[in-house]
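Final report, Chapter 2: Outcomes

The project's central promise was a pipeline that accepts a single protein chain and returns its three-dimensional structure in a standardized token representation, suitable for archiving and comparison. That pipeline is now operational. To close this chapter, we reproduce one record exactly as it appears in the project archive, with the input sequence first and the structure output second.
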Amino acid sequence: MMCFNKIHFIISAFTISFCLTSCKQEKDTSLSALEIVESSSSTIFVSDNNENEYVIIANSGSADGKITVHDTKENKDFILQHIESANGTTYKNKDGYTLLTNGSAFTWSKDDDVIAKGHLKTTSIEVEKESIIAKLDTTYYGNYVNDDYNKKDNGHDWVAIMIKPIDDYRTKITIRSRGDKKRGTCTFDAIGNASSNSTLKVLENGINILFTFNKEGVSISTDPETEEYALHSFCNGGASLSGTYAKFEGDLDTTQIDKIEYSRSLSYNDVFYLIEENNGVITITPRGIDIAPSKISDVKGEITNVEIDDLNNDTFPEILVYTTSGTDAKGEVFGFSVNDEKSISIIKVSKIAEHEDANIGYNGHDEFAMVEGTFIQRFPIYENNTLTGKSRQIQYKLEDSDSILKQLVVDKIVEY
């Protein structure tokens, strides 16, 4: 049985990277996986076919970004160094061995050839510590504005930030500017993960964006600071998200604020895709290739996130848009597929209600993620409208259909 929880799925950028470091030398070893776990802080991943186990050995005294991966089947250790990656938390060594983790999922490969894929089996108690898995101070929720907001009646442009909770660990960040006279100067939508009780971190197109709060307001910067140029990409006219914004009590000026409901730009193979939603219509517009935009109408609910990945190994991306609605936060998924960079088609996504085994005990509160070439849906299981303490994970695969539409169909169902 897989042993992971909601926290691991949500905080993919932090769960492994905060607790996995090691400075062991690469060597053969006769230690069993159990002995390693008992003797050091570690995390175990197991392959989907249950034939491979990889023990990630942590050493709290090491701060160099290295880990040791112990392959229990081959009885070998591999020293890997943490590297920057937009797809998840990644470690690699000079021989080409790579461990990529994304939430509870992992991929172990060599020179881009996949050796094993699977999920978290066990994790050290350190992962559960409140000091490692941070929660944003709830007093920082609300609206923030730049200095020009106080001059709006004199015709000045302005920018506002809206911070709303998703759960204890994730926050919805919305940035809009004045839009009553022209298109808004700055537009930004993202999910922020709490890296401390006063800091949110967003990984956007490979760049870490930091939202740092205090009693007076919030400042936006990048980590490292040399990447601050990236904050210009969310604005036009030479403007930037960078700067300090003051806490604003009350409602923002709805007569002036940009009315676009969602906007996000994601890149894949050096092509940017602008995802926008307005009045229930999602539009995907490529930038960098000459193909027409694609639209989906009659979208209900609020967009919570957008992800991009290659789900059918054709080297071209799929884009999935996640929405939620209602008090039970029932989710829905809308998909687009890029076809040889010549067109964009809509993906048909199977509904939970269409699968009896998947639908039993379903009552919303979905979580979605694209994980290394697959699409995952996860939700708590209810019985008689009461939580059972169990969860169900559904793995989908992308298939071509008899019609023009590709389909995301149920591949595996796991309960834990």
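Archive annotation: The longest strand covers residues 386-400.
This record, like all others produced under the grant, will remain available to the consortium after the project formally closes.
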